Amino acid sequence: MENSVKELYKLNPDISIKKRKCIFGTGMHAKQTYVDLSIQGIKIDYFADQDVHDQESFYMGVPLISEKQLKKMDVSVIIASTAWEDISKRLYQQGITDLYVDLHRYSEVGIQNGYLSSVGKFNMETETLYVLCPAGIGDTLYVAAYAKAVKKCHTDMKRICLITKENQACIGSFFEGVDEVIASDQLVDQLDLYSITTKTWYLNNYIYGHFKKNLCQTFDIEYNENSNLEILKYYKEIILKIPDKSIMDSFQYKLNISDKGHMRFIILIPYANTAKMLPEKFWEEIAKLFIKNNFVVYTNIKGNMEVPISGTQAICESIYDMVGVCSRARLVLSIRNGMCDVLAMSNASLVILDTDQEFYERWNTKQLNENTIHIKCFGRALEESQKDVINLLMEEGNFYGDRFIK
Predict the structure, then answer these.
(1) What pLDDT sits at residue 149?
(2) CA 299, CA 297: separation in Å to the nearest integer?
(3) Residue 2 Cα to chain centre, angstroms
(4) Are β-strands 20-24 and 75-79 bridged in parallel, bridged antiparallel, or unpaired?
(5) In contact, 39 and 217? CB cutoff 8 Å
(6) Distance CA 239, CA 153 (A)
(7) Which residues contact 326 (CB under 8 A, 6 or more apart)?
(8) Which of 11, 120, 171, 313 has the fewest C-beta atoms under 10 angstroms from its C-beta?
(9) Would you state the pLDDT for residue 268?
(10) Closest by Cα among 302, 398, 295, 301 to 351
């Protein structure tokens, strides 16, 4: 029986595309599961529940059927309920065997006297302030960088612990103010879902360290009302609730490289999750310039979904290792993304290509490091932007001088 219910996490690749699909449950978890699958383009044909009396009921605009009706249908059933074990046993006994459940979603979140006390197997301490980092690299970086300032505003807390995604575990180590990091994708997903569904953004020992949002993953009205704020100001005033005069903690990973001028390699970072990306031909011309000047050129990629720019070599490292590699590079040329923020706070020689005006105005890394160079590639022809990039890189007496191309 234990193996009859297959785990659905995001979307199990084994789920049948041809079969009709039914979500079992009509609670908050069922709504979130429906939204998750809809975002991925997965059509849900039915909702089902144990007690449905109206033969023409609908839920979320989808036909709602009874458990008894399921017995006669050939469907994949996605159980979205904390009582999934009992439900799966009943359905299995009725001959319904194509069952799925998101096991990560149903670990119970414990709250005692206004404190976060437990999340599944994790037990929380009342004198530790837990800050959830459910979003991208840059967002986690801002929270970590303000850890000391947050601690000053919570004098009853002895320690600050960041809860991050596993690939972001190292970010807390860059800042002295972070006492502990729990890196767990499962824990992040559980707390993210809990905060969104219950609208719990703050507890005595807990902060939801990102923009408030709803089940459809759209931001709360508070974000829209303050969308003109620079991102760091937003984090201070709206999310972390610390004084506007609070300053960031210093970045701990700084390399003292006296022979940086002899490091003849370049890092290109052409991929981003949110910013508009530039065409591959744009990057190919830039790469040709570097290669012509006897540089080895690498393209930072993430897994098999991204490919290196023609003529360059692939590099795929953890965030921590990329900071070390980029700090040794003669130049890092990157589209605007979260990794830019990390590199801006290190001593990497960084040029950022901005493709979106709002990103440039709100997420400008000049707030992190005055030495970062920004090139605006929005609101103009790509050929013009390309020429500007090449001209800037070739100016010996200006940008990077003898540290760059001669």
Answers:
(1) 96
(2) 7
(3) 33
(4) parallel
(5) yes
(6) 13
(7) 267, 332, 343, 346, 348, 350
(8) 313
(9) 96
(10) 398
